[in-house]
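Form P-L/3: holo structure prediction, ligand NAP.
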Amino acid sequence: MTPMTILDRFRLDGQIALVSGAARGLGWEMARALAEAGARVILHGRTDTAILPRAAELAGRGLAADTISFDMGDAAATERAMDTVLARHGHIDILLNNVGERDRRSVQRITPEDFDRLVSVDLGAVYRLIKRVMPGMIERRHGRIVCVTSIVDQLAANGSPSYTAAKGGLAALTRALAAELGPHNITCNAIAPGFFATETNSTMTQGESGARRARRVPLNRWADPGEIAGAALLLASPAGGYINGHTLVVDGGISATYDML
Ligand SMILES: NC(=O)c1ccc[n+]([C@@H]2O[C@H](COP(=O)([O-])OP(=O)(O)OC[C@H]3O[C@@H](n4cnc5c(N)ncnc54)[C@H](OP(=O)(O)O)[C@@H]3O)[C@@H](O)[C@H]2O)c1
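OUTPUT (holo model):
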């Protein structure tokens, strides 16, 4: 038998991956990468209208894709959707928790209800998905969980208190799960993106403020959304099998540096 090469260890043939928020932005880039590496990818979207064209795009390239739609802020809908996913696929090998909502209102301006809602989508819903896929992973003694946080999981800027709190909590949850699930051969890691030029950020990349943000990055530019995919594939594949409880920062060097005033 030919020995496995390092490139073989990035393959995901026969694996089932669920990617939340896969209709656009970083979620779509990561979902496509996992599919290209051989996984059968279940693309999650808020609605069928958003997600079905993405699945068709992958299927058109001969890649395996399925879809599921639900609002991550609706706990009952999430449970029902996970019933469907597990009935259809039996188990999940890779769970990539990408959905993240933002709210840039200050502590003074955000309402307690909106604070709770954002934390429930960005952190609580992740916990709910993990809880549903965990039993199958434990039974099969195999699983990869990847959570998308942000550089705000360690560093705060003025504004976005609910988002900052949720992402910090998600990084902590990642470490707690690494400790709890490691003995079952399940890894749990996070990816902390910096400044990515996704559709959501389109206005922020423009003008002098967009250029100023780019200058804050040692690489002197915003990231292309596709530049997140390598990190996701590493953490999801056998190549990253001994990485556990880690947050992989993908920020062009922002969080490793500061400006000399
Ligand atoms: N882009 C960056 O620079 C950056 C930096 C740091 C961290 N991140 C994190 O990376 C992840 C992806 O970022 P992105 O820029 O690609 O975001 P995005 O373009 O806003 O995409 C997020 C995806 O999640 C979906 N989504 C949001 N709330 C949902 C909900 N309640 N129910 C179901 N789906 C929901 C969105 O669906 P709709 O299309 O229906 O809204 C969208 O498809 C997020 O967790 C974000 O916090 C991004």
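COMMENT: Strands lie at 16-19, 40-45, 65-69, 94-97, 143-148, 186-193, 247-250.
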